Amino acid sequence: MPIPKDVQFVTFDCYGTLIDWETGVYDAFQKEADRDGFTIDRDVLVPRFIEVQREIQRGSYELYAEVLRRTAVRVAEELGWQLEPSRANFLPNSVPYWQPFRETNAQLERFSKKYEIGVLSNIDDKLLGATRRHFRVDFDLVVTAQQVRSYKPDPAHFKECARRMGKLRRNWVHIASGYPTDVEPCLKQRVPVIWVNRHGEKLESSQKKPTAEVKTFRDAGKLLKAA
User: Which residues are identified as catalytic?
Assistant: First the structure.
């Protein structure tokens, strides 16, 4: 799907695209592990966190806060850190402190002046509410995992977004950093998608290319002439 000639609505994934969740998760793990004199290797933590969380999200739906608690306990065990389940609240409690990327707010302001904007996020409403305090703009549309009772890459977020947009879905572009969670389902739903490939990931031959690929969120703004 090419980018529409007349873009009117732009949506974003939140964590990884607007918010630096990797640093937020690492800082939260290390702060709690410091209590036990345990050191966390960020390069080991992040990929294990992604994989364990994805596995938990494939099960029956539960609030993201609970997903985080379960993920914390399992990842800690894999890292050799014996974390009591009663302490696992450290991770959902850290979400309000996860920070936006440096370019996020300025670029969101540029987008909001030109387009209607929205967020499609694998989170619950309460935790997203805490995160939204970091943004200087408001959103015209918000779809959370709690609202659709499923987690991306399940297509429910995108179907619900299209339903709420109505005719504007023909003028819609999604921007996201997660290839499996956002780019793949967008391509399947025939939604134009800009991949913010912050880590320079290489696609395998079996993976389809996004509508466009950029290195930063600001580059996505330039592409849509909102820079």
Answer: 13
